[in-house]
């Protein structure tokens, strides 16, 4: 586990967009042991009319998701993207400048500048394991999503599999933690428990490569409330 603060993590994400994207491809392939197509299939359907993407980075994946949705004939949506690293956000602003339906804002995942029940859906792609305060982030996401709304996230797990893939993934994870671009991988049950502790019901869950894909839903009636 890293001991880096959110500001140190933001500095670690200060890299040229081309290097960030190239590095991301290797991390996806050898540490996550996942594919872009898999991610597009998981995230694309889980966008409601007003969607929040937490830790949107340089917007590369978000742009691909929106293209995928269009290709699949899914409806247009309003998207807000937030990230704590100014450099990442600048990249996203340049990339997505011509899209009127996307608003980008500087924010910490654990202190979202939005009123309660603002969004129909939320996602965190490839990022929950980069956050220093994952429980704070999950709590605040739960607060800003509407009752009945969903959170889709993929979480990096401690490496599985056989030699040499497991060892390669382990080395990439260790390097990421030293550099500050990875906070910690998780055990599946640990992150699942945290999602549930934040208040979400688990709608679907699956392990793919070294990633845990989980879709949580905020109950329509919060516990303790009555229908009467
Ligand atoms: C591995 S990148 C993933 C970016 C993007 N979601 C993607 O899939 O390409 C992790 C992102 O988490 C962001 N991040 C780290 N800590 C954060 C925090 N406390 N609040 C918001 N974003 C944060 C980083 O700035 C970085 O853009």
Structural write-up:
With 228 residues, the chain is an alpha/beta fold. It is 39% helix and 21% strand. It has helices spanning 6-12, 17-32, 36-43, 60-71, 86-95, 134-144, 165-179, 188-197; strands at 50-54, 78-83, 102-106, 119-124, 145-156, 201-208, 211-217. Helix 2 (17-32) crosses helix 7 (165-179). The protein binds S-adenosylmethionine.
Strand order of the largest sheet: 3-2-1-4-5-7-6
The total count of strands amounts to: 7
Question: What structural class do you assign from the helix and strand content?
Answer: alpha/beta
Mean pLDDT: 94
The main pleated sheet reads as: 7 strands, mixed
Which residues form runs of ≥5 with pLDDT under 50? Answer: none
Overall 3D form: globular
Number of helices: 8
Query: What proportion of the residues is helical, as a percent range?
Result: 25-40%
Q: List the bound ligands.
A: S-adenosylmethionine
Distance between the termini: 46 Å
Order of helices and strands: HHHEHEHEEHEHHEE
Give a quick precis of the structure.
By secondary structure, the chain is α/β, with parallel strands linked by helices.
Name some characteristics of this structure.
alpha/beta; binds S-adenosylmethionine; 228 residues
Tell me the layout of helices and strands:
Blueprint: H1 6-12, H2 17-32, H3 36-43, E1 50-54, H4 60-71, E2 78-83, H5 86-95, E3 102-106, E4 119-124, H6 134-144, E5 145-156, H7 165-179, H8 188-197, E6 201-208, E7 211-217
Parallel strand pairs: 1-2, 1-4, 2-3, 4-5
Antiparallel strand pairs: 5-7, 6-7
Helix pairs in contact: 2-7
S-adenosylmethionine (SAM) binds at residues 6, 9-10, 13, 24, 55-57, 60-61, 83-85, 88, 108-109, 125-127, 130-131.
């Amino acid at each position: 586990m890293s001991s880096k603060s959110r500001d140190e993590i933001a500095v670690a994400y200060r890299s040229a967009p081309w290097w960030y994207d190239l590095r991301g491809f290797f991390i996806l392939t050898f540490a996550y042991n996942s594919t872009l197509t898999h991610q597009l299939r998981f995230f694309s359907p889980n966008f409601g009319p007003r969607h929040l993407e937490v830790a949107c980075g340089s917007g590369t994946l978000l742009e691909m998701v929106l293209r995928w949705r269009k290709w699949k004939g899914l409806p247009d949506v309003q998207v807000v993207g937030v990230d704590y690293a100014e450099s990442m956000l600048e990249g996203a602003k340049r990339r997505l400048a011509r899209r009127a339906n996307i608003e980008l804002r500087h924010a910490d995942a654990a202190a979202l500048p939005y009123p309660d029940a603002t969004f129909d859906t939320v996602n965190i792609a490839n990022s929950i394991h980069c956050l220093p305060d994952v429980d704070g982030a999950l709590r605040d996401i739960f607060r800003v999503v509407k009752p009945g709304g969903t959170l889709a996230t993929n979480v990096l797990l401690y490496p599985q599999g056989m030699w040499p893939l497991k060892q390669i993934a382990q080395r990439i994870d260790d390097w990421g933690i030293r550099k500050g671009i990875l906070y910690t991988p998780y055990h599946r049950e640990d992150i699942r428990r945290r999602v549930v502790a934040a208040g979400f019901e688990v709608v679907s869950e699956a392990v793919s490569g070294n990633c845990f894909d989980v879709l949580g839903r905020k109950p329509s009636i919060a516990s303790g409330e009555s229908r009467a």
